[in-house]
User: Fold this.
Amino acid sequence: MSETVFTYAAPALKFGSGASAEVGHDLAAYGARRVLLVTDPGVAATGHPARIAEQVATRGIEVTTYDGVHVEPTDDSLRDAVAFARDAGPFDAILAVGGGSSIDTAKAVDLLTTNPGDLMDYVNLPVGRGRAPSEPLLPLVAVPTTTGTGSESTTICVLDVLSLHVKTGISHPALRPTLAVVDPRLTLTQPTQVTAAAGMDILCHALESWTARWYADFDAKRPEDRVPYCGANPIADLWSERALTLLAGVFRDAVRDGSDLAAREQMAMAATFAGLGFGNAGVHLPHANAYPIAGRVRDYRPEGYPEVMVPHGMAVSLTAPEAFRFTFEAAPERHVRAARLLDPSVEPGPDALPTVLTALMRDIGLPNGLAEVGYGDADVDDLVAGALQQERLLATAPRRPTDEDLASVFRRSMEHW
Assistant:
């Protein structure tokens, strides 16, 4: 039997310039008296976390700050954060201030300070043991300072498992933040290349959600077997389509002029909408490919980032044009519709979405393919092996790739223009 049911869930949302000044009120409403604030050194240097902590303290709430988040979290960095929280606790709420790395770290801290076991017990199969939480988590308030990851809306915590050179995640509805507080003014400090890479993450969230396998094309599930990523569906479609429309109007402007508050507000809105879409429909090939691209990086250090890495949004974008060329035949009308939301003048056909994406990537200064971040043909088999481990994402693809299909996507993505 085919599936007849889709699900939809989202955190409570507070959106708008100045929203971060109300976090103390929001935490008090959850009965919080001792709060752990989770952030990273770069975000801490902007002053945003300290200002928010001071505001929270005016409500009589004690705030302990952990500012050791690793950009692109690893299993080691998450364990360090959990150890800090266990030593400094107990807490009755968690507050994340930062990009996806801070929010994902806060999710892991929340999970492992309320539930027994080790990190790998909860990491998705087949990398980890795929265990579900047995105890309720603390309220988690997420305050994003970047526009892109959507972590403030989702049930996912993403991490690199260093010993395996693979990026994977933990996925469970309990990890979804209780409240997302989106204050576009916080993103004014986002560097240009972070805006570009994170913006491509927004774009791919919307595109992958929009083109994902339709929910009714899956086999019917028992209620206890339902997962947050249920496939494209009518509600997720609305969010994804609106995110694409917003991005078409402001993405280039936001990269060109980071002080353009109107563009920043629209990017934050697009990120929120895309998160509400893909957080339920799911993502597929570009994200599956991104995990080994980020996990196996050797010496590429992007501008605006603190160390050697391929930032997540950049990693997602590097194979996106060829991934969507591959999935085109599964839903031609959806691919063309998405392309024309981004550029109404594009000619229809399998090249429409790849053409629009490569033009955008070139305009905002992203690398010209995998070769520019240090990969070559000799790496393809290893990259394919890493992508094949992302079964949760591959299952959402509208067209299931073989090993050879993935290898072709990686090879064709070495250079785009």
Observations:
- The mean pLDDT is 95.
- The chain has two domains: 18-182, 191-412.
